[in-house]
């Protein structure tokens, strides 16, 4: 009888200790897993040249008019910026293909995560960059020309042209004066098909990539706050001076 009286409390104590041990370890394991997931950085869509070609073909981007070279270069620079911690939102990539005339829809907003073309619309170039085709570019103040290369989108604000998006140029000597020049994405009533049909080219800006009034809010909201924007042209000066594409094309 005395033995039973000793064993029962002992079993109860052991059971309680075992329960506390298991509960503590389970809680720590769960917390550790949650912490890892919460701090995991955004993942870029990492590709090589074959995968880029496959993605371009799978999305049938050739049917939209976007050149393969513009897309390939955009992906190389996008990956470079992502690796250097410049991109906060790697899901979206925007390309302006200045090899196309201004009457064509040459702004392409691509959802890389879901492999969707979100927007394809008109976009202006600077008035001193050319009429229908943009073929002259500058990083200088008051040049009223577009600047090629890679940008990271900033925040939005309401300014002279309404809802607008700041753009930060990522290439020294090529587009790094964008903020000081006031180069932003905004809407403009001169960016429309009717004007293009009337005079052979849409209206031009002072260097900003202006887009149609009927889509600007949706476009800007989808690419703001840390996405990659690439302004492409088969321009010899840019090809010779960009460090982003040279570095990555050599490495790949």
What fraction, in percent, of the residue positions are helical? 25-40%
Q: Distance N terminus to C terminus?
A: 81 Å
Task: Predict the CATH topology of the largest domain.
Answer: L,D-transpeptidase catalytic domain-like
Largest sheet: number of strands, sense, barrel closure: 8 strands, mixed
Number of domains: 2
Strand order of the largest sheet: 3-2-1-8-4-5-6-7
Order of helices and strands: HHHEEEEEHEHEHEHH
What is the CATH architecture assignment of the largest domain?
A: Beta Barrel
Global structural class: alpha+beta
Helix segment tally? 8
Strand content: 15-25%
Mean pLDDT reading: 87
Pfam families: YkuD_2
Protein name: L,D-transpeptidase catalytic domain
InterPro entries: YkuD_2 (IPR032676)
Key traits:
disordered C terminus; 8 strands; 252 residues; 2 domains; 8 helices; eight-stranded mixed β-sheet; 39% helix; alpha+beta; L,D-transpeptidase catalytic domain-like
Briefly summarize what is shown.
By secondary structure, this protein is an alpha+beta fold. The protein is built from eight helices and eight strands.
Secondary-structure blueprint of this entry?
Layout: H1 2-39, H2 49-58, H3 68-83, E1 92-97, E2 107-111, E3 116-121, E4 149-159, E5 162-169, H4 178-181, E6 184-187, H5 193-199, E7 210-211, H6 216-223, E8 228-232, H7 236-241, H8 243-251
Helix pairs in contact: 2-3, 3-8
Protein model, in words:
- With 252 residues, the chain is of the alpha+beta class.
- It has 2 domains: 1-40; 49-251, L,D-transpeptidase catalytic domain-like (Beta Barrel), CATH 2.40.440.10.
- Helices cover 39% and strands 19% of the residues.
- It is built from 8 helices and 8 strands, in the order H-H-H-E-E-E-E-E-H-E-H-E-H-E-H-H.
- It has helices at 2-39, 49-58, 68-83, 178-181, 193-199, 216-223, 236-241, 243-251, and strands at 92-97, 107-111, 116-121, 149-159, 162-169, 184-187, 210-211, 228-232.
- Helix 3 packs across helix 8 (243-251).
- The longest helix has 38 residues, at 2-39.
- The protein is globular.
- The relative contact order is 0.15.
- It comes from Chitinophaga ginsengisegetis.
- This is L,D-transpeptidase catalytic domain.
- Pfam families: YkuD_2.
